[in-house]
Write a structure and sequence with these properties.
Blueprint lengths: L4 E5 L8 H11 L3 E8 L6 E2 L2 H8 L6 E6 L17 E5 L6 H10 L3 E6 L6 H4 L7 E5 L14 H14 L6 E4 L7 H7 L3 E4 L1 H4 L4 H22 L1
Parallel strand pairs: 1-2, 1-9, 2-4, 4-5, 5-6, 6-7, 7-8, 8-9
Antiparallel strand pairs: 2-3
Helix pairs in contact: 1-8, 6-8
This protein binds D-xylitol-5-phosphate and zinc ion.
The site of D-xylitol-5-phosphate has 22 residues, from strand 2, strand 4, strand 9 and helix 7.
Amino acid sequence: MSTIHVSASLLAANYARMGQEVQRAERAGADSFHFDLMDGHYVPNLALSPDHLIALRAHTRLPFHVHLELENPDEVLDKFQPLQADLIIVCRDTLAAPSRTLARIHALGMRAGLSVNPDEPLSAALDYLSEIDLLLILGVFPGFGGQVMQPGVKRKITQAHQEIRSLGLDLPIGVDGGVNNQTAAELVAAGADFLIAGTALFQANNMRRIITEFKELARLSRSQHQAET
Ligand code: DX5
Ligand code: ZN
């Protein structure tokens, strides 16, 4: 993948004016929205619902990527439609039968992503790489925005990049949680194609400047990486 994709995580947006927040991020150059759903069981927090997605759809043309941070994702998949959500990301450790869930997302007309938590080995996702459209490496334990990235994330991305290459797949790697202008460059150098950021974007006075910085950091770290290999 040549250019970096920046996805704005709405968990960090101002909930009192979500419509304007999506427009602000679109104007600032975001490529998509990341939309976390939390159930208070799988993670100790509650967030967003499919109704928010329906309400926000009218405010932007950008794709929405739904991240299901909840138990039993199979029970809620049919609450989403391709017109609202482009991609559904499920957490690997919530799936009893991953292939079945991923096939169901595809059958509903959406793309499928798989996320791996910081304390989960990459091996948990390896069997499914050919069945997904995005591999998401979580930089933090799911549940809250604004956390500091856990150690070992960069190494996991490097490993994922090597595995994907060795299989001859063209599968993008995303990283979610703790992404900011301190961490972005090394994540991209390790092989991340998708940067998902909430706090770093929505807390910024000038979101365009941050997104431009991400893309510039990514461009520099890639050209440096290419020069070295
Ligand atoms: C965490 C979520 C993330 C979160 C990232 O459970 O999956 O999408 O919004 O937040 P930041 O960018 O603030 O770390
Ligand atoms: Zn997320």
